[in-house]
Amino acid sequence: MRWTNEGTHVGAPPTGGAFTIGGIDIYRVENGLLREHWHQLDQLSILGQLGLLPTG
């Protein structure tokens, strides 16, 4: 499953900046049971959108 969420940064310290994050979840089902789950999201993109990455 591919997904996208939007939010406002309220972390420590809160910037109040808006961000969009995308991610992918992969599920492996065997005999009708969930056996494995992989979750990947782009946290580096959030830091860039909020201006929290070091520059040069």
UniProtKB/TrEMBL annotation:
UniProt xrefs under PANTHER family: ESTER CYCLASE, POLYKETIDE CYCLASE SNOAL-LIKE DOMAIN
Name this polypeptide is given: Ester cyclase
Organism: Nocardioides vastitatis
